[in-house]
Structures are given as C-alpha cells and as structure tokens.
Amino acid sequence: MRRRAADYRRPVRRRLWCWIWSVLVLFCLGGLVLFVIQHNHNADRTVRFSSEERTATFEEVNHRVFNLTDEIASATSFSRQLAEQMTLAKAYIIIAKDHNNLHLAWELSSKFRKSQLLLSAAALRGEPLTLEEAGPVIKSMSALIYKAQDLHYDISTTITTMQSHIQALEERANAAVAQNVVFGQLTVESIPRDIHCSIIKLASDWIQNPTLRNVADELRNSPRLVDNNLYHFCVFSDNLLGTSVVVNSTVSNADHPKQLVFHVVTDGVNFGPMQAWFLSNDFKGATIEVQNTEDLSWLNATYLEASRDMKGSSFLNRLRFYIPDVYPQLEKVVLLDDDVVVQKDLTSLFSIELHGNVNGVVETCLEAFHRYHKYLNFSNPIISSKLDPQACGWAFGMNVFDLIAWRKANVTARYHYWLKQNEDRTLWKLGILPPGLLAFYGLTEPLDRRWHVQGLGFDPNIDSRLIESAAVIHFNGNMKPWIKLCIERYKPLWERYINMTHPHFQECASS
Ligand SMILES: *[C@@H]1O[C@H](CO)[C@@H](O)[C@H](O)[C@H]1NC(C)=O
Ligand SMILES: *[C@@H]1O[C@H](CO)[C@@H](O)[C@H](O)[C@H]1NC(C)=O
Ligand SMILES: *[C@@H]1O[C@H](CO)[C@@H](O)[C@H](O)[C@H]1NC(C)=O
Ligand SMILES: *[C@@H]1O[C@H](CO)[C@@H](O)[C@H](O)[C@H]1NC(C)=O
Ligand SMILES: *[C@@H]1O[C@H](CO)[C@@H](O)[C@H](O)[C@H]1NC(C)=O
Ligand SMILES: CC(=O)N[C@H]1CO[C@H](CO)[C@@H](O)[C@@H]1O
C-alpha cells in the first residue's frame, strides 16, 4: 500500500517540477528581455552624451554589462546555473516564510546572498565564474532547494507565489528604468510642448475673461457643493489633462451626470488654467468646483506642522488625509487619483454597505506580496504589537470614504499619531501609502476587485477581459498614458476621453 502511494505521488511531483522549470525558463527569458531593454537604455544614454563626456570609464562599464549578459545567456555557464537557482531559491524563501519555516528561509537567504556576491564579483572583474568558485554554492543551494521541495508545499501555493514574484520583479525593473537618466529626460520632453502652450493660453483666458471668473464665483456658493443627495468626487492634482480625463470619463459613463459633483483641488500655478478648462468645456452638466491650495489657509500651521516630515509627497498628495476638514458638510465622497480612467457608472459605490468602516477599497493581496509586512517595519514593536503583518494591503486610487465614520474614528488624528511615531523614519521610509495603511487599519471594507483594476502603468500583460470589466482602471506605475514611455496597448483607453480639437490645442500644435 505504502509503495503504491509513493509511486502514485511521483508523477505529480515530476509534473510540478516540469511546471516550475518551464516557469523558470520563461522567467529567465523575460529577465533577459528586461536586461536587454535596460541595456538599450544605457546605449541610448551613451549616444546622448557629447563626445567629450564619453569617457573611457563609461564605455568600460557598458562593455562589462554586455559581456555579463552574454555570460548569463550561455547554456553552459555557471553564472546561468546560479541565476536559475537563485530564482527558485527566492520563490522558496517566500514559501518557507509563509509557512513559518524561518530556519529554512534563513538558510536559503544566506545562500542567496552568497550567490549574489559571487555574481557581482564576476561582473566587476569581467570574467566568468569558475567551477571552483561556483561549485560549492551551487551544490549546497541544490541541497536546500531539494529540502524545500521535499516539504510538500502544495502546487497552488507554488503557482501563485511564483506569479506574484515575477510581477514584483517586473515592478522593480520598471522602477529601475524610471530612475534611469533616459527616463527622466523622456518625462520632461514628453509632457508635450503643445500642452504647456495650451496651459499658458488657458491661464490668460482666466485672467482676461471676467465672465469666467463671475461664473466661478457663482459656483462657489452653489448649494449643490454641499448637497448630500448628490454624488461627490474628490480629485487633488496639478495635472490638468489627467484631471480632465478623470472628470470626463466619470461623467461620460454616468447614467445621470447632472447628479455628480467634482471637488478639484490644485496648486496656484494650475488653478487658473483648470478653472478656464472646466468652465469652457462640456462636462454634461456635472458640477465642478476648483480650489487653490493657497486658499486652504485654514489648513493652518498646526496641521502642516503635523505632516511636515512627509518628504517626497506633496501637499496635494497629503490632502487626502484631511478630506473631512476640507468638506465639513459632506458625508460620503469617492476619492479618485489623477491617473485613473472611469469606465462605468460609479453611483452605486455610494450605496455599498461599509459596515461602519471608513474606507471602502479594493485590496491588493491577491498576490502574496502586498501584505502589511511589505510596507511597514515589523521589527519595530510599535508596529508589531498593534498590527497583523499578514493584513491585506490596498492602494489609493479609488476609495469610498464615509466621512461620518471618519470623524467618529478620528482618522486624521490617527494619521498624525503615526507621523509622530515615525519621526525617526524607522517605521517606513517614504510615501503616503504606509501612513494610510496605518491610519485606516481596521477601518477598511474590501470591495469587489472589478471596481479598481491597477497596474496599467507598469504591467503590460493585464487580461483584456479584466480591463473591460473594470469600473475604474488605474495607471499606477511610471508609464503614464500622457508620456511617451507608456504602454501603447492601454493608451487609447485614456486618450479617448480628451478632446484634442480644443482651439488652444490646435493653435499650439500648429505654432
Ligand atoms: C488650526 O485649525 C484647526 C482645525 O480647523 C483649529 O481647531 C485650530 O484652532 C487652528 N489653529 C490655529 C492656530 O489657527
Ligand atoms: C477624537 O479626538 C477628540 C479630540 O482629540 C477626542 O476628544 C475624542 O475622544 C476622540 N475620539 C475617539 C473615538 O478617539
Ligand atoms: C526597524 O525597526 C527597528 C526597531 O526600531 C530598527 O532597529 C530598525 O533600524 C528599523 N529598520 C529600518 C529599515 O528602519
Ligand atoms: C470627453 O470624452 C468624450 C468621449 O467620451 C470626448 O468625445 C470629449 O471630447 C471629451 N471632452 C473633453 C472636454 O475632453
Ligand atoms: C471638442 O472641442 C471642440 C472645440 O471646443 C468642440 O467644438 C467639439 O464639439 C468637441 N467635441 C466633442 C466630441 O466633445
Ligand atoms: C562574450 C562576449 O561577447 N565577449 C565580448 C567581451 O568584450 C570583448 C571586447 O570588446 C569582445 O571581443 C567579446 O566578444
């Protein structure tokens, strides 16, 4: 009986291995493609440098990178064997941690680091790894991987972990591309010149046209802005095109656009142009209020002081933690980021039961990666004593906020509390998501995934049916639809909501 059982299991194991290896091969190919893309960026950069700047050192570095690429692609090289093992080891580190097998995870990590060191040493000196160097590491890593495999982790864990691992790597590769000099240049170059030109024309419209300003003044006192029978949306942004697409796509897909109210807050530079744009275009009768951060002076020294240490996130970004203060009469709002496109009527969001929670949001932990421990330092007792490291993460972009529950739970005070705890930056480093995860902890209601589909700014392989079924798609990531370096497949989804035949765009394009 026992033998039969063992015989029966073996083909399953073999299939698992086949599967793992095929994922691995695919993954390596993908990695290679990314590597080559990166390399091409480097090459691009070389071309952009003037001949004086093109020093020997620079060429040398590029040259070495190229040779390492070849080396890893070679079927017989030790670097390649090591790189493949590292991928597998990485996946098993995650699985082992998920199963609380910390010792195994630790052993694998230490071998992983050793391999990294070997590879980087080889890259630095520009020569392939030798059998003497690589042999012992490859052997001991094989033993560990065999041990991990022997612990019978089920196939579906392996599949999902591998997938999310690949996704996370892609994310990181894209981030690396973004930090690239080339990317910086592209971003600046590709905020198209004619858009700059149009924004200036809109600013002068605002200054020169008293009718526009009168209409805006009237709107400021409109009872619709505080009417809780209407549907209220907030957009805080300095990006005119992005904000216009958010508003236009929302009204274009609404069953009753006249019942929608948009509360846009922007900075001093964009205030005039946004006013002029929203007043002189047709948004199907929706109410659109534009405010200037400079006029939110009551968000006074106390509050600004509390978020003073939030380096790297602008005032507009942080404003989301003060929504009940900015709109004291409102009871429920939907917050939309300026890089989303709305594809369905959103009014039913407002009637979803939040069960007393403050924040209705789509969670992101379908992938094993996006849990709280990924964002926050759980070595710190302030965090680990109060939060569950496995709690599911989420992302800003489309949030339903119950402002009554918010005020009752003092979420803004919680936000201030966590900022204060993080004065020495040991809880998290950057961004508004970590303090958001903390401030809304235990006050979050998960929504159906189709309300908010993310990743259009970094993941080129999102399922078309998922995108089609999404109420809101989010271009989070670096490849925004308004820049040259965007993902072509998704660009039309955004572009169709901006009317480029506006006279200013026409004049600016031809000038
Ligand atoms: C700052 O604003 C808060 C909330 O609006 C208010 O309670 C407080 O009195 C203000 N402080 C100052 C110094 O104006
Ligand atoms: C919210 O904060 C106020 C003032 O800081 C405090 O009086 C009140 O008890 C707090 N409420 C809760 C539920 O923590
Ligand atoms: C995490 O918190 C611990 C305990 O406060 C601290 O020693 C460590 O430096 C923190 N890690 C980071 C990366 O800040
Ligand atoms: C709004 O989107 C529609 C497509 O649904 C487009 O025809 C129209 O030109 C857009 N309006 C503006 C002001 O961009
Ligand atoms: C686009 O803008 C032009 C000029 O403002 C306007 O005449 C036209 O009707 C708009 N088209 C759509 C589809 O909104
Ligand atoms: C494997 C490989 O392409 N190696 C290259 C490393 O750099 C030298 C010098 O340019 C080339 O001759 C090699 O072909």
From TrEMBL:
GO CC, one annotated term: Golgi membrane
One GO MF term attached to the UniProt entry: polygalacturonate 4-alpha-galacturonosyltransferase activity
Highest taxon listed in the record's lineage: Eukaryota
Annotated pathway: Glycan metabolism; pectin biosynthesis
Keyword Transmembrane: yes
Enzyme Commission number(s) from the entry: 2.4.1.-
Residue stretches spanning the membrane: 16-37
Gene Ontology BP, a term: cell wall organization
Membrane disposition: Single-pass type II membrane protein
Pfam families: GAUT_1, Glyco_transf_8
Location(s), subcellular: Golgi apparatus membrane
Top-level EC class: transferase
Keywords: Cell wall biogenesis/degradation, Glycoprotein, Glycosyltransferase, Golgi apparatus, Membrane, Signal-anchor, Transferase, Transmembrane, Transmembrane helix
Family (UniProt): Belongs to the glycosyltransferase 8 family.
Protein name per the record: Hexosyltransferase
